[in-house]
Amino acid sequence: MSRPIRGHQARVCLSDSFSLRPARLRWQAAHAALLITVASGVLASEQHDSHSHQLDQLLLPPRVITAVQQDSPLTIITNPKQARQPIPASDGADYLKTIPGFSAVRGGGSNSDPVLRGMFGSRLKLLTNGGEMLGACPSRMDAPSSYIAPQNFDQLTVIKGPQTVAWGPGASAGTVLFERLPESFDEPGSRLDASVVAGSNTRRDVQVDGAIGSRDGYLRLSGNRSRSGDYKDGNGDRIPSRWNKWNTDLALGWTPDDDTLLEFSVGAGDGEARYAGRGMDGSQFERESLGLRFEKRFNGGALRELEARLYYNYADHVMDNYSLRTPSGMMPQPMASNVDRRTLGARLASTWAWDDLELLAGADAQRNTHRTRSGMGVDAYRDQPWNKDAAFSQIGVFSELTWSRREHQRLIGGMRLDQHHVEDFRATVSGGMHGGHAMPNPTAGDTRRETLPAAFLRLEQDLSSLPATAYVGIGHVQRFPDYWELFSPRQAVGAVNAFDGVDPERTTQLDVGLQYQRDGLQAWVSGYAGVVRDFILFDYSGMASSADNIDARIMGAETGVAWELTDNWQTDASLAWAWGRNRSDGEALPQMPPLDARFNLTYARDNWSAGALWRVVAAQSRTAQDKGNVTGRDIGDSAGFGVLSLNAAYRFTDEVTVSAGVDNLLDKAYAEHLNLAGNAGFGFPADARFNEPGRTLWAKLDLSF
């Protein structure tokens, strides 16, 4: 197996959050981090000379990433460890916003919910190390991205649109993969990478990533601690938004030969976050993860690679109105809700090759269960029994075939078939229109079963007249409703409840584009148009939320260019546009982000660089009042804005790099269109968006040994 030797890139963070749970796991993580740090110091000298020689040949001026360019048709691959602007990300959604086409539903300072091309939730498949970490909050306070610290991963891959079937069902908007790459050592040695971030609003991050190993295997420990206080907007008003979170992960790999890998991983994390846009805050985001990974490559024969993964993820989430705020308004009494989600999954895949054909084939399966308990009074929920309300299971088979028809032409297609099963364990449900009192659940004990297909076909053509690749692809996905669509709405149009009435979505989408690259110039454009049958839409205009299936049309485009003006000057720009229409009701599709453009100018020379980023966002007038998804709803039109930011970076040595920036240099007061609206408990007026941070200073130190 040809695995590249890891350089001095990785940074993971060591948690000092001893005030968070669980104490035993925190002590074990800190103790393991100390051991690996000491071991790394002892062994680092064995590799320093060889790594320094490699770096002397490969080092480029340090840069701060402001936008990620598309690498190949519909695919983006980037290193999430690199310094970025705005201030380094606190969660997965925060990082994804640097990629054209992504936005996020904002609720506070951290834990936003990612949106790609206006599509939200399980339409966007989000995986870490090949496994899925599902949140537990019925309103997605703990969205899957909130459990991800981007800097703890080595590679981020985004596949836009329904153009892969290899990573699970339902990915009609796209697929996002956060991955840690296997370690590789030619001889006994080690590496140790760390970073520190300091910024306005008491922002403090610490990250450590270390590994020791040899040709026979490795031990890797990574961890992060991130915290911030409430921020002030451009008007000087304080926005409730503070957070404090940590993650620790340990991986043990065995490499008996260059073609075989067996890796076991274990991880834990926790945190808390205050939300300007919610009636409760997140006082616990406890995570437990286990993973087993096997890879085998074969030399000769049609079978080229075999891969197997097992994963277990557990989310234990607490939301309350007293830990991070004072109970007031419509909820004057202390109250809390505790929810958890246990997910177990597996994936088996094989790669085959014959002359001009390459086949990826495999199967995957997942089972997850959801429980809840609540109570009135401080920590009263702990005395309540758990109630299981839902259990989901899925098993599917998939295949993707790449046919190199000619030297410069490729035909890529894939198919998958999934069987879904869900059971409703709720004995009672909220009365909604009947005053909110518990009522017997009409679907108690009911099950739903569906067998749903997905497929895509894409043609890629390298153009002889230009150094460019053109592509056109069509994909079809039938998506089974997720937990938030079947169990969170209190009503469903034309049915006794959402579990009984919400049908699977059926998306058919055409993707076209052009990828151009020559010396000093990279440009790309991608466009899409689709029809969504039975689009799942939430309506909040009544006394209780309801879900309905409607028919929708979607279209949009992203484009970007990066141009090296001279040896030292570089400019890049990107533009993203998304549009949607509710064909059933004749109005706009809600929660669509407005036109978003980024312009960047960078000067880089030797060991330093400086840059300016200008982000311009148009007004959004195509809205559907009080309609949206389980997290957000349209609260009216939004104004456009422009934000100017500056950054700089300097490399002191091969091992030490400093980057710094000022976000929102002009201290502008502005709000994102996708916004939960400020909560009345913090004194915000009803249906008014809360503003984003004002002028923010930050600095980041990267160390590699």
Describe this structure in words.
The chain is mostly beta strands. It has one domain: Maltoporin, Chain A. It is 7% helix and 51% strand. The protein contains 4 helices and 36 strands. The protein has helices spanning 23-58, 92-96, 483-486, 498-501, and strands at 75-78, 102-105, 113-116, 119-120, 124-128, 155-160, 174-179, 189-199, 203-214, 217-228, 231-232, 238-239, 243-254, 260-273, 281-297, 303-320, 335-354, 357-376, 387-406, 409-424, 428-430, 438-440, 447-463, 468-479, 491-492, 505-518, 521-539, 546-564, 569-582, 587-588, 596-605, 608-617, 627-628, 641-651, 656-663, 696-704. The chain has a 22-stranded antiparallel barrel. A 4-stranded mixed β-sheet has the order 1-6-7-5, with no helix packed on it. Strands 2-3-4 form a 3-stranded antiparallel β-sheet. The longest helix is centred in the first third of the chain and has 36 residues, at 23-58. The relative contact order is 0.14. Residues 1-57 have low confidence and may be disordered.
Short synopsis of the structure:
The chain is mainly β. It contains four helices and 36 strands. Strand 9 and strand 10 (217-228) form a beta hairpin.
Features:
705 residues; mainly beta; Maltoporin, Chain A; 22-stranded antiparallel beta barrel; 4-stranded mixed β-sheet; 4 helices; disordered N terminus
Task: Give the arrangement of secondary structure elements.
Layout: H1 23-58, E1 75-78, H2 92-96, E2 102-105, E3 113-116, E4 119-120, E5 124-128, E6 155-160, E7 174-179, E8 189-199, E9 203-214, E10 217-228, E11 231-232, E12 238-239, E13 243-254, E14 260-273, E15 281-297, E16 303-320, E17 335-354, E18 357-376, E19 387-406, E20 409-424, E21 428-430, E22 438-440, E23 447-463, E24 468-479, H3 483-486, E25 491-492, H4 498-501, E26 505-518, E27 521-539, E28 546-564, E29 569-582, E30 587-588, E31 596-605, E32 608-617, E33 627-628, E34 641-651, E35 656-663, E36 696-704
